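Exercise 7.
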Amino acid sequence: MRAPLSWLREHADLPAEVSGRELAERLVAAGLEVETVEQPGHDITGPLLVGRVAGFEEETASNGKTVRWCQVDVGEGRPRGIVCGARNFAVGDRVVVALPGSTLPGGFAITARTTYGHVSDGMICSARELGVGDDHTGILVLDGDPAVGAAAVELLGLRDEVLDIAVTPDRAYCLSIRGLAREAATAYGVAFTDPAAGESLPIDGTGHPGEVDPASAVDRLVLRTVTGLDPAARSPLWMQRRLVLCAMRPVSLAVDVTNYVMLETGQPLHAFDRGRLDGPIVIRRARPGERLETLDHVARELDPEDVVITNGAEPVALAGVMGGLTTEVDAASTDLVLEAAHFDAVAVARTSRRHKLSSEASKRFERGVDPELGPVASARAVALLAELGGARHSGSIEVHRPLPLPTIPLDPTRPARTAGLPIDPDDVARRLEQVGATVDRGGPTWTVTPPTWRPDLTDPADLDEEVIRLVGYDSIPALLPVAPAGPGFSDAQRLRRRIGQALAHAGLVESPSYPFVGPAALDALGLDPDDDRRNAVRLANPLSDEEPLLRTTLLPGLLATLRRNVGRGNQDVALFEVAPVFRPGPTPLPRPPRPSVEHRPGDDEVAALDAALPAQPWRVGAVLSGDRDRRGWWGAGRPASWADAVEAARLVADQARVLLTVSADRHPPWHPGRCAALHVDGRLVGHAGELHPRVVAALGLPERTCAMELDLGLLGAAHDPVPAPRISTFPVATQDVALVVDATVPAAEVERALRDGAGDLLESLRLFDVYRGSQVGEGKVSLAFALRFRATDRTLTAEEATAAREAAAAEAARRTGAVQRA
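Solution. The predicted structure, written as tokens, is:
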């Protein structure tokens, strides 16, 4: 809502020194959102005077254009010669003259210059050049008989300040000068003059007839018939100026008056050409198959839920949204029917959205219009048409179904307790009366009746807000709540932090991603149709139609980030993410209940809400491409491989203090020959390896891209305290063992056998060499392991370490057929 300061001053007795910015600060403090304060006309400088056309001569230039060489009196004792291309003025007319040295809106500087063979000593201005309208086809001819030489800036009110206010849905009354002036008067504690209290016109039951169908949810209709309007009458400049400042285009007197009254009072009005109405005005719901061509020249198929205004037979307007073309007021209209109604807010909002048609009227009706405004606003419009266009009132009818006034019980001490500051009950009553409420102070609990223009006031909390905002939000003390002592991080939270730190120390970069995916991403991963990862939760209102699902795996987001980095030239990438995924399970989720906002939900309600949520297990994922070890003066680099993905999984397992067992597997989206299944105590907890070439091609990834994903909830130790490692002060005994096994035997199986055979003295075990060649024979492989032994209570002897190594080798020989190399 744009509000000129000069218009607000007419209804709020603001101090003369108050500027637009100062008023904006007060309104913001009262809870309104003032976006900008504009100063139209403040860039006008220099002499801008009222002139009288003393005479002119019409001349035809060499280019065929006819111009007028005018003599214009601006009160200087002698007329000025000015060349003008317009021809809509006559001798004796009063016009606005910009003299050389002046500047018009937009920085348009005026100078004396030679044109069409004459020195034009100034410029005669149009409405558009002065910023009072958009008419640039002719000169602005002033009404009345203003004094020659008078300052035009003050005469036309060219300088003003305009507050642009973003009105929230709960403050519909501020979509009017009436509502904003009331707020301004309250903010400064000055008198307020209600523009809706100055006009009255009796309802005599005559004039154009009208009816309301009860199914239309319209509780009030006022029709006023106006005859004898002078079709040549123009809207006065002051009205056009205000409409322009409020971002509305002046059209004609009848249309401008309805728009002006709407801006002033907040009540939308519509004017019908009475000569084009074939029957009585009837408001009802639309019928199947009905159509209406609205004023924007769009033929609309009506819905049975639409509320329409008809001429008794066919629709002539979308109620509360836009009029129809067949009954439009035009330049020849002399007899009008002014309609002022109170439409249902929900019905108007649905109609506006259904037809994708928003108007100034619909913005007000869907937020809530004062039901008492119809008779007053329509009377105001009739008075303006009579004053400015010579119209006569020819009868009024009203259909009225009074609505009960709601009342709200209020404990007068409640606002003070809500705000945490002392507010006297007398001050509470005064503040509520300032917003227009009636306060019955009988008894310990007051009865408050909100004003009809405040449908948003329905509960005691609403009254608290009104009192507190008028007292001043800045009066509320800033007190930080005392936080109770908490248990700190949970074990699961500590584990996730340790995992993130370990992966970061290993050179991976954490990369959180959006939890939304689309079917295309799951297809690119090559998932089978019955894969559990395709069973995803679909969002009711997704940010993107291409990603309507909640993720069931971390890989799509990580791989998309990897592709984006590679596309921008970052070839060596190692990323990880620790985050939840969403797994709804095989059975549909139950519909969640809707808890009341009046009290805390009970345990049963919380349990029902939890049951309606999908399982959200935490996972860790990692992706790698390019070089894992950079090349340099020290030698060639080493590309990332499936082994690095497995090693990242081992780092995660180390932080959970669990032993990860690795075995070969086939699981999309990994390469079937380079995919490792990861187990803990026999439970499958994830996979790691190189992605399938088809997946790499489908996603546009670098060749040999690797990935890992682990379910933290299945690691076993994720929710249990993690014991600190036992550190021995005694020296370590290192023993190496090289075992020859069949090439088909997994190294992980040999490692498990060594661990089981070495006993409690084994501290760590690491594979450090793999050899294939003639020395071990065809189909054989040599695996060399480094074993570290340590005791917690003594220094191990060489014999003890050797015995432990031999026991480990013997167990490996028994389970895998391994033979020690000499």
